[in-house]
């Protein structure tokens, strides 16, 4: 009597197998169902591979409460593990492994997509889903090669190298679609660089906010300016956004001093000024380098060199009283 086959997927092989599945679902002209499983399996791969690096440093850090780590529970997989956000924080604080802020934003968006798919459903353009997938895959492959591979040996290392070749070959075909489309729209994006930020749907530097309209030239998603501001803050401000809302405050969007729209976020990277954060209005597309609060009422104003430190309303009120 032959033995029953065993399901054997140790962490590294498991994570890489998820990546193989992602590429299989993205190949060719994927339909909605293929894109759905590409998102679900990419989220799974991200979580498994980040935690594999944690395990290489200290297996106890994969527990939700590291102080309650138990080796027997770890060996049988019978424990509640930390989430991806916590894994990233522990990689930085304990293992000295930094996940770039842009990559963390893509991972945050991916986690949101996965949660919506798993529990509520998801409606997004296929091009946006494919683009985000490519951005996360780019990060993961570099992470695996630079941060995980040096800590592997034996079967884990052999399996990783075998799978990496397959994934990279498939990724080049998917990236070609993104690269081709970006090349077509790049001249227009360059001409409007002061109004261009990373799209909160596809992750490309192709979202244009100008004169009350906000949309992405890459994936075609139109946005209400206020919604675009909130989505951008949720993805790129992370903990600061959630802590403000959790503590009873409003999402961090403010009144723009240029257009009075309620769609300004204080820390945004704009295509024309990628090296520094600026205040940016997702309604009119203005970028501000010196935002400050009115000394009287706290309203945000453009506090450039030599500018008054009070808003126009407070200034006019003071002049009227005098």
Structural class: alpha+beta
Order of helices and strands: HHHHHHHEEEEHHEEEEEH
Helical amount among residues, as a percent range?
40-55%
Q: How big is the Rg?
A: 23 Å
Count every beta strand, where a strand is a DSSP E run of 2 or more residues: 9
End-to-end separation: 101 Å
Q: Can you tell me the number of structural domains?
A: 2
Percentage of β-strand residues: 5-15%
Average of pLDDT: 85
pLDDT < 50 stretches: 240-244
The helix count comes to: 10
**Main β-sheet, in a few words?**
4 strands, antiparallel
Q: How are strands sequenced across the largest beta sheet?
A: 1-2-3-4
Approximate shape:
globular
Could you explain the architecture of this structure?
The protein is α+β, with helices and mostly antiparallel strands. The chain has helices at about 10-25, 30-55, 70-75, 85-95, 100-120, 125-150, 155-190, 225-235, 240-245, 310-320; strands at about 195-200, 205-210, 215, 220-225, 265-270, 275-280, 285-290, 290-295, 300. It starts with 10 loop residues before the first helix and ends with a helix.
Produce the secondary structure layout:
Layout: H1 11-26, H2 32-57, H3 71-76, H4 84-93, H5 101-119, H6 126-148, H7 154-191, E1 196-198, E2 205-210, E3 213-216, E4 222-223, H8 225-236, H9 239-246, E5 264-270, E6 273-281, E7 287-288, E8 291-293, E9 300-302, H10 312-321
Antiparallel strand pairs: 1-2, 2-3, 3-4, 5-6, 6-7, 8-9
């Amino acid at each position: 009597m032959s033995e029953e086959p065993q399901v054997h997927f140790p962490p590294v092989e498991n994570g890489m197998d998820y990546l193989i599945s992602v590429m299989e679902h993205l190949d060719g002209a994927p339909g909605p169902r293929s894109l759905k499983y590409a998102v679900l399996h990419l989220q799974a791969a991200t979580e498994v591979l980040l935690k594999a690096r944690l395990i290489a440093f200290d297996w106890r850090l994969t527990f939700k409460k590291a102080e309650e780590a138990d080796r027997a529970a770890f060996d049988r997989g019978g424990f509640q593990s930390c989430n991806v956000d916590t894994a990233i924080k522990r990689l930085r604080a304990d293992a000295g492994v930094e996940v770039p802020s842009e990559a963390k934003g893509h991972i945050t968006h991916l986690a949101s997509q996965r949660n919506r798919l798993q529990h509520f459903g998801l409606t997004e353009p296929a091009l946006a889903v494919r683009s985000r997938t490519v951005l996360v895959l780019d990060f993961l492959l570099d992470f695996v090669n630079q941060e995980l591979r040096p800590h592997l040996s034996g079967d884990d290392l052999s399996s990783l190298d075998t799978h990496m070749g397959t994934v990279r070959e498939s990724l080049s075909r998917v990236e070609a679609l993104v690269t081709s489309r970006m090349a077509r729209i790049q001249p227009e994006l360059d001409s409007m660089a002061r109004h261009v930020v990373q799209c909160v749907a596809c992750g490309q530097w192709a979202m244009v906010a100008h004169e009350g309209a906000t949309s992405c030239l890459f994936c075609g998603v139109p946005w209400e300016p206020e919604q675009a501001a909130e989505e951008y803050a949720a993805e790129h401000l992370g903990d600061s956004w959630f802590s403000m809302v959790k503590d009873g405050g409003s999402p961090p969007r403010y009144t723009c001093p240029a257009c009075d729209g309620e769609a300004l976020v204080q820390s945004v990277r704009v295509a024309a000024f990628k090296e520094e954060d600026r205040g940016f209005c997702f309604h009119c597309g203005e970028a501000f380098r010196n935002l400050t609060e009115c000394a009287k009422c706290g309203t945000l104003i453009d506090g450039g060199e030599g500018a008054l430190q009070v808003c126009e309303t407070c200034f006019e009120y003071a002049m009227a009283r005098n």
